[in-house]
Amino acid sequence: MNRGLAATVIALMLCARPATAQDLVADTAAVRDRAIADTTAWDVLESLTTEIGARPVGSPALARARDWAQAKLKALGFTNVHAEAFEAEAWIRGEERAEVISPYPQTLQVLGLGRSISTPKGGLEAEIKLFKTYDALLAAPPGSLKGRIAVVTQPMVRTMDGAGYGDANRNRTRGAAEASRRGAAAYLVRSLSTDDTRLPHTGATHQAEDAPAIPAAALSVPDAELLERMVARGQPVRVRLNLQSRTIPKAPAWNVSGEIPGLTHPEEVIVVGGHLDSWDPGTGAHDDGAGVAITVAAARLAGVGSPRRTIRVVLWGAEELDDSGEAYAVAHRDEAAHLILAAESDTGDGPVWQAKLPKGSRDHLAMRAFALAVGPLKVIQSREPAGIGGSDVAGLNALGVPSVGLTPDASRYFDLHHSADDTLDKIDPADLAQSVAVWASFLNAVAHSDIDFRALAAP
After folding, report:
1. CATH topology (fold) of 3-89+250-457
2. Active site residue: 178, 319, 320, 344, which one?
């Protein structure tokens, strides 16, 4: 935004609410500046990945993460710090191995998908049926894959907004079910990844309700391409797959929260956070240690100066298999009317480049102050309103709680996501600080104002 336009916006706001407008604009800009220099997010993330590491549901590490989170929030000055227990599905990885038996014997790099069942002890061996697109798999007739290992090698497209992941997500989440419906004995999918390393990327899959559950795993990108080249030579390709795992239908999990209480309207609560659990190959630095660190640091910065409203940070404990959001919505259903907004940071450390605001709120004083603050950070204000604010707040959104979409640059995120490369050394401190500054500016503008997103969205 140029200086002339900024001056006009401030003048218009001052006409409506002279002191409040001036203070809010100045305070939000000051929070932005403090955030750029603040190291809280990096310190939190370094602590989480170093002291806890990977945090899958059902592991001792998740219980340690619960205790770590409560201690960290208290040390940072949050109040009403507590853990809310619930039960979640846990999938525990065991021995995993895949190899081409013929015509060109060699090892394949795989990671089992969450909710995969085990192969028989010692594994299973079968000829593969390769599909270069997911739609080609769907076009296969019933029974055509009987006794075969179905393989989908459709690549994921690298995009700034993560749309490539959204497009390819069904390959992993639905592929095993569709392969089973056509008689497949197992399912392999090219990792939902934009990298070129031989590290596979895991994630959840859904088994069919109307067909047998089957073993399912993700192939590394180079190995998916290797199978394509083998099949192109015209000979049958046989693969031996050994996947061992166990599922705990009801494992303990926790949503950990802490608050910065509002001074005059503490009953009005802004809910933000990231998810504490992670997959097991890496240390969960991008997914979602970064989201935890960003929102904790942003809330702390926005809480300076006695905010009008309460800022609550929630560290959700079972996002990867989609259990913590529902548990939180059920537990907090009765206070939904008092929740001003709910949003989650869950796309790594990439700098925020776009803000999708709640419907009808762009011209409100608070959102003008936010826009002025983040303009220098190269954040554009989308004319498209925010949708669901993250999987862990989808349940609250369904109860009518508004959300915001602060979109980070995801160009690099899916090189690392759900893989052994999701580690602290891949975090860019400057990008992390920019994300904190955007989140802190937004929280400051909302917490120190009287903006009513529901009223602004009303027809």
Report:
1. Aminopeptidase (3.40.630)
2. 319
